[in-house]
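Escalated from tier 1: FE2/S2 (inorganic) cluster holo job.
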Amino acid sequence: MAEKYKETAVVVSQEQIADGIYSMWLQTEQIARAAKPGQFISVYCHSAEKLLPRPISLCEIDREQGRVRIVYRVTGKNTGTEEFSTYKPGDQAEILGPLGNGFPLERGEGKTSFLIGGGIGIPPMVQLAKELNGEKQVVAGYRNEQIFLGEELGEHAAFYVATEDGSRGTKGNVLDCIRENELKADVIFACGPTPMLRAIKSYAAEHGIECWISMEERMACGIGACLACVCKSTEVDEHSQVHNKRVCKEGPVFLASEVEL
Ligand SMILES: Cc1cc2nc3c(=O)[nH]c(=O)nc-3n(C[C@H](O)[C@H](O)[C@H](O)COP(=O)(O)OP(=O)(O)OC[C@H]3O[C@@H](n4cnc5c(N)ncnc54)[C@H](O)[C@@H]3O)c2cc1C
Ligand code: FES
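Tier 2 regenerated the structure:
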């Protein structure tokens, strides 16, 4: 089983990169060195009222300097993510990771891949774009002209944008963007809201494309102990004999055909 570590990380930098979206680099000891694209960390709040850690994907991994980058959306007032947005360089944060399985990089080897991100599902695509071999096309869906992480993604892959309001790129969703640009791929890696993943799953099935999706289910423990994060699987679990998979442990990345959305 892959190692995970509980560490006191130190904030290296904190920057607002779009309305309500923040980017934070954290100095870690072991987590950065052990992490893979598509894995996540659990970030604990300082506030004693907020006991449960918040799962946040690794956006970038700098193994040499022992740092990880997270990009997160503040979900509202008095939330854990709002607390994170107040952290300054030098502040500390308890984190646990790396957690989850990560993307199967070998499945993209020598192939043409779509890396599809929607909203706050875009961040994990940065490290994936860096590490995946083969031809890569990132298709990113945003609400409006506030395009975040576009520069980083464009450095490592062909970069296509869809916006809901049509202010940039294709007006519509990521699949509208794929159709408009007549893009083709052999394998899909995707992360984003469930309706987007559902649409991508059926697009992949229709076109016979292998499709890997990263799910952002609500979590509690983040380490496979509480079953708060189960999703329905098409196969029966060997141990419990039920159609369940724990997103935090067996996921968050699944072959789309193995899970019900
Ligand atoms: C594997 C994974 C990766 C994620 N990666 C990112 C990311 O890179 N960037 C980002 O902005 N968000 C990401 N999320 C969503 C993020 O975890 C939630 O937005 C966050 O936990 C909300 O916490 P809060 O304190 O702001 O909200 P609150 O509403 O105060 O949270 C209350 C509780 O519900 C849980 N919760 C609420 N919404 C979610 C959610 N969508 N998913 C999981 N738990 C939730 C919280 O962890 C907390 O325990 C990810 C979720 C998962 C499961
Ligand atoms: S969050 Fe507890 S089992 Fe997944």
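Residues 40, 52, 54-57, 71-73, 75, 79-81, 120, 123, 216-219, 252 surround flavin-adenine dinucleotide (ligand 1) (CB under 6 Å).
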